[in-house]
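Collaborator request, handled under Task 6.
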Amino acid sequence: MGYEIERKFLVTPDWPKTSGTLYQQGYLQRSKGRIVRVRIAGQQGFLTVKGQAIPNDGNGIQRPEFEYSIPLSDAQMLLQSLCEKPILEKIRHRISYQGWIWEIDEFLGLNQGLVVAEIELPTSDACFPLPPWIGQEVSYDPRYFNSNLIVQPYSTWQFCI
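Structure tokens returned to the collaborator:
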């Protein structure tokens, strides 16, 4: 069984911008226990099944994940015809920092203005250095889950100052 172990953080405005890859993703199934996602990353299609976080991993950041390559034309058809709307769009940047790869997602459309960094870890208790452009951790805040951003986009959030 495959597992995903990742932590998610907000990004400060001074993050090192790089050229990125356009991602489009939609959801065939979204529930508390499982997500079935279709994604186009550049010119590649993927179908991903994710389960609920495993509560006894110590941190609640490990969950089952299975990802499969699918033909680009199939991914396009699924996004257009079967996935919930709107389709989530973002530009993903990959940045190496002290031997660790950070994926920076710069969201587009209704989620414009949201920039989130993710790091995949080998274990849920792994230690890693934080780059200076990393802000608040949001790993446990469901508002920042991609699957929730199609229902309540970042542009609709209310902030108190």
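The cover message to the collaborator said: "The first helix runs from residue 72 to 81. The longest strand covers residues 21-30. Please let us know whether this matches your experimental observations."
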